[in-house]
Design brief:
Layout: E1 6-19, E2 23-30, E3 34-40, E4 59-65, E5 71-80, H1 83-86, H2 89-104, H3 113-128, H4 133-146, E6 169-171, E7 176-178, E8 190-191, H5 194-205, H6 219-237, H7 243-249
Parallel strand pairs: 3-5
Antiparallel strand pairs: 1-2, 1-4, 2-3, 4-5, 6-7, 6-8
The protein binds zinc ion.
Zinc ion binds next to loops.
């Protein structure tokens, strides 16, 4: 059986690279096919029908022709360009953070529909609640969970004992929470407050994402949660989160 020569899909643009005089290659995360790198011929020409369609953070309905090395965009229609996310530099930085992490945690042509849904849901929620940091932390944790990298949050990763309140620590390199008696060699063990651990568990278990922006979590606890999640993301990415610098530079009130 031969594959059809064209296929239709919906995808979120993550990044674009100029190629040749007027073409570009766009990394697009689709629900059915996972991440694709597609060639958009002539898309950088001002007169092109495709001009502007491949800016990062655009949800596109696509018709794609199979190519020898790269598949080629035949038609593209904008479903939404997330105007609320693009309304402000600081909010755009949050959107680009989502795009960077989806890109970093996905391989080409490895479908993960939950990751697609998580990314789109997060962008919509960030557009509605641009100052709610916790939405990005929810994204961080669910991204890790959906990619098979969820840190342990309930037991000691070494001995398997149930954690007792106030008697726990955290080690990214060991895979999550530790009891006070276990200290695996060669990993950096950090303290983690009970409220921060509870927030991490909430982000893991909650299905009421819409309620996250209303939670009143002290800034110090949010910073702690952010620190643990960033360290975990960077451990698995084996590099820094690049867009974090934009986020830090473009603080929302
Ligand atoms: Zn232990």
């Amino acid at each position: 059986m031969t594959l059809p020569r064209t296929y239709r899909t919906v995808g979120l643009t993550l990044r674009k690279t100029p190629v040749g005089e007027a073409d570009l290659v766009s990394a697009i995360y689709t629900r059915e096919h996972g991440k694709l790198e597609l060639l958009a011929r002539g898309a950088r020409r001002l007169t092109s029908r495709l001009m502007g369609h491949f800016e990062p953070l655009t949800l596109l309905r696509l018709s794609v022709a199979r190519g020898r090395s790269l598949d080629i965009v035949a038609e593209a229609e904008v479903v939404t360009a997330f105007p609320e996310v693009k309304s402000d530099y600081a909010v755009t930085a949050r959107g680009l953070y989502v795009a960077e992490l989806v890109d970093a945690f996905s391989a080409l042509s490895a479908p993960n529909p939950e990751l697609f849904d998580l990314a789109v849901q997060t962008l919509e929620a960030v557009g509605d609640h641009p100052t709610a940091e916790l939405l990005l932390r929810y994204f961080d944790l669910q991204l890790l969970a959906g990619s098979g990298f969820l840190p342990e949050l309930y037991q000691c990763v070494e001995c398997g004992e149930e954690l007792e309140p106030e008697r726990h620590r955290f080690a990214v390199g060991a895979g999550g929470t530790l009891c006070p008696d276990c200290g695996p060699p060669d990993v950096i063990v950090r303290s983690l407050s009970l409220p921060a651990l509870k927030v991490l568990r909430l982000l893991h278990r909650t299905e009421a994402v819409g309620r996250l922006p209303d939670l009143n979590i002290p800034a110090a606890i949010q910073r702690e949660v952010h620190g643990v999640l960033t360290a975990t993301l960077q451990y698995w990415m084996d590099r820094q989160v690049r867009t974090q610098a934009f986020l830090d530079a473009a603080k929302l009130p």
